[in-house]
């Protein structure tokens, strides 16, 4: 009851914030807010519409807290979907959220290390370099002179996130109960998947581990640089890592002034994405512009540098395989294969007509094929695919939400960097190499090499096993036992048939014998007993009785 009351109060607060910032139209346009709109007909409405719309939306999201800020961050990369002034304002949510006071930052560090900050760092910059929805970053130096950044969780952020997750869970339960499309869209699973993602961000040791893994994955790479983590200084609420110096990916003016090869940079971004997803199966899932820098020591060979690995994604081998097959089929315009893959994977019901699904996919995808990025929008394509999926009762796959979000971010970055980018031509070779590694000759050799110890042990034991089998066969002692649900069902049916035949034969004999004895009047009660027992056995042996 307390949690429900708290959730209801939170919904009311959300509406008050929207009204205060002059966003009243969102209340009547958003379905789950409509039942509460009557509260505001009774209250003074002091909407402030003096500021531009983008500013009002940004301020409202900042006031509502971390989950809403993250929503604004994700949307900010889609300038093809937003008016330019709104996109510019939402971009400020990437690293220009109002910081918390330096006194609180020092208090967090003192509590984490159990000693004054001056004893831990040679220098700690109280003015933050950047502030985001969950944490903020300060510059610092270790006592050996190494320049580092110190990332600190916002005080009380866990409680704020827990509060808003309650709201999301409540809305998901309501949708699950009353929304006709809930079975297909699975809102409760989607919220649970999002909850795991955002709760993981609250442990900065986990982010450090993610950073270290990505650094190993790209060790020696000319595509991406990942900073070093200084583990001796890391705590759950404080992450210390190498300070990166580069041009923010969103600063196109600076990149062009440095003579950066923008086309190569855009192509490398696509290759990094597909490499992370398919070769490493470990991808940076928060690739908004605030987390990406460019190192231009050699402008002809620019190199990405990434930070903030609080959100990473992985896929199961099955999902990896199906996604790669879908991408390759799309590049080859093999829409029949795309339809078949969706049915085989269970993403659409098994009774779906493959020719109808093939035609629907072709209708959506064919118009955009081989167009440069500036002429297409994945968002619009996915909306049309979503509408198509409704016709075929396709279920949402919650485990793929992070990947879709990351793909949107990559498209947004690519559109800003080099709108003429041919996404298909860039991605196709990467996927082909990965598929060759998975199912080609090298994959077979690799599998044999990785399983060599088990094969060696099996070969060593093989002579003894063959000797025992030959001895059992010679002595007539070799038995085979086959276990399967189908065989066991057949055995049960045969056994039931044998029992029914026995009951019918024995019951018939006893019934006839009883009648004869009664007719001859030589057996007294024995005739009655025999007849009754025979009738019972006949009833038990009747067809259809187990």
Short description:
The chain has 546 residues and is α+β, with helices and mostly antiparallel strands. It is built from 23 helices and eleven strands.
Structure description:
- Helix 16 runs antiparallel to helix 17.
- Strands 1, 2, 3, 4 and 6 form a 5-stranded antiparallel beta sheet that branches.
- The chain has helices at 2-20, 24-29, 53-64, 66-76, 84-91, 102-113, 117-120, 157-178, 182-185, 187-200, 204-217, 252-257, 262-280, 317-331, 335-344, 354-365, 378-391, 401-417, 423-439, 441-450, 452-474, 485-520, 525-540, and strands at 123-124, 130-131, 135-141, 147-153, 224-225, 238-242, 247-248, 283-284, 292-295, 303-306, 312-313.
- The chain contains 23 helices and 11 strands.
- A hairpin with a 7-residue loop joins strand 9 and strand 10 (303-306).
- With 546 residues, the chain is α+β, with helices and mostly antiparallel strands.
- Among the domains are: 2-94, no CATH class; 247-446, no CATH class; 487-540.
Distance between the termini: 51 Å
Q: Which blocks of ≥5 consecutive residues have pLDDT under 50?
A: none
Strand content: 5-15%
Q: Average pLDDT value?
A: 76
Category from helices, strands and their pairing: alpha+beta
Structure annotation, total helices: 23
Note the overall shape.
globular
Query: Largest sheet at a glance?
Result: 5 strands, antiparallel
Radius of gyration, CA atoms, in whole angstroms: 34 Å
